Amino acid sequence: MAENGNKGFSTRCIHAGESLDVQGGIHLPLYNHSTFAFENTGKLLDVVEGRNPDGNLYTRYGLNPTIRGLEKKCASLEGGEGCLAFSSGMAAEAATFLAHCNAGDHIICIGDVYGGTYDLLNENLPTLGIETTFVLGHELDDLPRQFREKTRLVFFETPTNPNLEVLDIRRIAAVAKTHGALTVVDNTFASPVNQQPLERGADIVVHSATKYLGGHSDLTGGLVIASAELLAPIWVWRKNLGQMMAPEVAFLLARSLRTLSVRVKAQNRSAQQIAEFLQQQSCVLRVNYPGLKDFAGHVVASEQMSGFGGMLSFVFDGDAAATAAVVDRLRLFSIAASLGGVESLVTQPITTTHYAMLPEERERRGIPDGMVRLSVGLEDVEDLIADLRQALG
Questions:
Q1: pLDDT tens readout for residues 275-304
Q2: Is the link from the previous residue into 144 a cis peptide, with omega within 30 of 0?
Q3: Active site residues
Q4: Keywords in UniProt for this one (predicted)?
């Protein structure tokens, strides 16, 4: 069980993984060291040979107190046995795939995924002999027939990017287990505030910590949370590929996590109000948000999530140019590709996250030229709605 696992979520955001240093600092300080020295060879070997699991040795290995404190905090928030911090979310995903798949193995990817993830699965991993089958969310009834003898992983986001489709974690994990495959869930959009995949049967959780966990658009990082057994081979790939998160980033991320709960809950409330506003606009064809009662995934989201998140998308009644004109008229929403920060962001998936995806594949996935994705920040929601109203007007 993760550290402080019996405490409330907000308490763990602040206290998990923290310890007083010799000066009495109330938070774990930044140890900006590449290497750590020992009093004698015996103590060095205690760390190298595993007799001192809390010893520090070399930052690329993750044996750095700032990084380890962050990892303990993140494991606690996701209810996992352990966590590994990475230089980016893509690094975390890549190491997970490489650690648990070999040449000839097979991955099933369900639903919409981030464009970079799609490229990794569709372009890069096949060169190593690892094949992926892509199953759309509405094709779940066909999922059992997609498994092969060498299917090792089932990977999906929920809610998905950019359609906010909600996939039933417990249902998918149960199917994967019967076929001897691991379930990997990207929990970036929901964050551990709103969703706990490990509690629902997932084996591994990954995050782009750049987004809600960082929350201030000032760091880049990734996380993998799982059991010690499943993390062990991922740790080797991280070490040998040099994918370690820098201590400075780990220090910033630990700072951000102390306010995670209050930030995300506020973003949940604002996103709900914005989604309801957009539903009332005649120029909006569709609003994708799990908190809307007529949204296709609302029933599953209500059972699986404790909050519906700060992300939403909508389809404007116009072509790509007309939609871009709406986006360009926004003043409080900055045009940017990321998400999860304190500032509100807007993007057209066809120009950023899914730009490299072939038009026919975007069409198959229901990502039209008129789609706009919003990341709702912490501004006053009345101001955000007023901005949207004038842009759509």
A1: 999 999 999 999 999 999 999 999 999 999
A2: no
A3: 60, 114, 186, 211
A4: Pyridoxal phosphate
